[in-house]
């Protein structure tokens, strides 16, 4: 009789499961691990619903604000600013300088003074140029002696220096007045904001201007229009 060959793997084969030992199932075990790492289907559904609602709200807020003018009402500003742990708002410095009536008054006064001083210097320079031209004409015609020419030349040089000194003096004076004006404006705005903020209790009111340190500011935190309105109202009450 032909002997049958036993093809059953021997116990020495490392891949053969050992007797009386539970056989492992890596694939099924991996499925169990993956299932534990993910939320249940109900939580996924809830999360998706939350995301959809959030996107809808953002969509509504974006398009509802799109057609409005720059800035917002004070109620919106206060609500927006106080959503976080710190409240803040900002004003546009360039708009304040362009629309604050006190600025207009001080700038007009400074401009008038500058024009007056410039006209005075220009008048003196014109008279000097006339004298200098006459002197040169007399020298060319040899109508005056050399000694007289030297004396007149020295006098003209002294007069020209005086005019230059006066021009520099007036220029420094205008620059000083401009610095003083800026100090007055800054003091006026800062003192006003202290009184203004007693109503809204912002932690910060920032100054924004193009090319400054603040590169971006949310328009919904812009209180410039309201500040300008209140500034001018208070200014005209004081003037009266």
Structure write-up:
- With 240 residues, this protein is mainly alpha-helical.
- The chain folds into two domains: 23-67; 96-239.
- It has seven helices and two strands.
- It has a two-stranded parallel ribbon with strand order 1-2.
- Helix 5 (101-141) packs antiparallel against helix 6.
Write the layout of secondary structure elements.
Layout: H1 26-37, H2 41-66, H3 74-81, E1 88-92, H4 93-99, H5 101-141, H6 146-200, E2 204-208, H7 224-239
Parallel strand pairs: 1-2
Helix pairs in contact: 5-6
Compute the CA-based radius of gyration.
42 Å
Low-confidence stretches: 1-47, 49-69
Instruction: For the record, give the distance between the C-alpha atoms at the N and C termini, rounded to a whole number.
Output: 133 Å
Helix share bin: 55-70%
Q: Main β-sheet, in a few words?
A: 2 strands, parallel
Please indicate the count of domains.
2
Morphology call: rod-shaped
Strand order of the largest sheet: 1-2
Helix segment tally: 7
Structural class: mainly alpha
Give the strand content: under 5%
Average pLDDT for all residues = 78
Q: What's the total number of strands?
A: 2
Which sequence of SSEs, written as H and E, runs from N to C?
HHHEHHHEH
Task: Give a quick set of tags describing it.
about 240 residues, mainly alpha, two-stranded parallel sheet, about 70% helix, rod-shaped
Can you describe this structure in just a few lines?
With 240 residues, the protein is mostly helical.
């Amino acid at each position: 009789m032909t002997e049958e060959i036993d093809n059953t793997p021997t116990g020495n084969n490392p891949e053969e499961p050992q007797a009386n030992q539970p056989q492992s199932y890596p694939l099924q075990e991996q499925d169990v691990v993956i299932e534990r790492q993910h939320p249940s289907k109900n939580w996924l559904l809830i999360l998706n619903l939350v995301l959809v609602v959030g996107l809808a709200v953002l969509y509504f807020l974006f398009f509802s604000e799109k057609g409005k003018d720059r800035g917002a009402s004070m109620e919106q500003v206060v609500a927006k600013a106080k959503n976080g742990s710190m409240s803040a708002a900002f004003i546009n410095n360039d708009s304040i300088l362009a629309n604050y009536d006190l600025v207009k008054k001080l700038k007009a006064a400074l401009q008038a003074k500058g024009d007056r001083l410039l006209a005075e210097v220009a008048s003196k320079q014109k008279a000097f140029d006339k004298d200098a031209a006459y002197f040169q004409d007399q020298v060319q015609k040899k109508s005056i002696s050399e000694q007289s020419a030297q004396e007149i030349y020295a006098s003209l040089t002294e007069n020209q220096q005086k005019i230059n000194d006066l021009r520099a003096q007036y220029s420094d004076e205008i620059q000083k007045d401009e610095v003083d004006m800026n100090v007055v404006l800054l003091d006026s705005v800062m003192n006003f904001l202290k009184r203004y903020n007693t109503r809204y209790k912002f932690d910060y009111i920032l100054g924004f201007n193009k090319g400054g340190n603040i590169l971006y500011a949310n328009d919904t935190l812009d209180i410039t229009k309201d500040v300008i309105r209140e500034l001018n109202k208070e200014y005209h009450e004081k003037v009266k």
